[in-house]
Amino acid sequence: MEKQKKSARKSPYPYKLEDLKKIKGDSKFFYPYKLNLGCGRVYLNGWINSDLGDNNCMGEKIKIDKILDVNKYPYDLKDNSVDEVLCEDLIEKIEDLDKFLNELNRIMVVGGKAHIRVAYYAYWGIYAEVHTTPLHRFCIRCCNLFTIMKNNGFELVEKKAWNCNKYLNLFCPLINISDLTQGIYERFFANIFPVSHVKWQIKKVRDCERKKEWVSYDSLKVKNS
Predict the structure, then answer these.
(1) Does domain 31-224 have CATH number 3.40.50.2300?
(2) What confidence tens digit (pLDDT) does each residue in 152-192 have?
(3) Cβ neighbours of residue 34 under 8 Å, at least 6 residues apart?
C-alpha cells in the first residue's frame, strides 16, 4: 500500500526540484517571483503556477494560482518582478515567439533564467496531439530562435537533447558532448533515433525596448487608475 502511495506522488517534472526551487515548503510567493508557465499537472510550491484555466487539455482538474494566456499581452505581472521561469511543452503553441520573448524580458529581472523544454521535431508524441495544432517545430540547434532570443535581451546558457524514457536518456550525454556532436546527431541520426525533447536554459542579460503593439503592465495600470 505504501509503495502505491509513493508512485502516486511521483511528479512528471523533468528537472530535480532541488536544482530549481530555492523557495521550499508551503510558503506563498516571494519577490522576485518564480513563474511556472503552462503548469498543467506540475504544481510547484513557492512558484506562481499559471495556465489557461483549472482544466488541462485532457479535461482533468488541475491546481493553478493564476489564469494566464501566453498569447495575450501584456501579462498580468509587473515589470522586473520574476527571476525564474519554467516553460515546458508550451512554446510550440505560442503564436509569436518574438513577442513572447519580449514579454519575458519585461517581467524578468536582469540575471533571471528561463528553463524551456519543447518536444523534438521528429518525436512521434508531437504528432499525437489532438487538442491543438503545434505552430512550431524545434531541433537542438535552432539558430533562428537563438537570434530572436538574443534580440530580446537573452543569452543561451545551455542547450541539450533529452529523452523522457530514462533508459533511452542514457544515450543523451553522448549527443550533448559538444555542439559538433549535436550537429552530427541531427544530420545523420535524428530521424532514425529521435530524442523526445530539447531543453534550453536562457538568461536575461539586458533590458530591451517594448514592442510597439503593447505597453508594459505597469504603465497600463497607471493609465487605468
Answers:
(1) no
(2) 999 999 999 999 999 999 999 999 999 999 999 999 999 99
(3) 21, 22, 23, 44, 46, 47, 48, 82, 83, 84, 85, 86
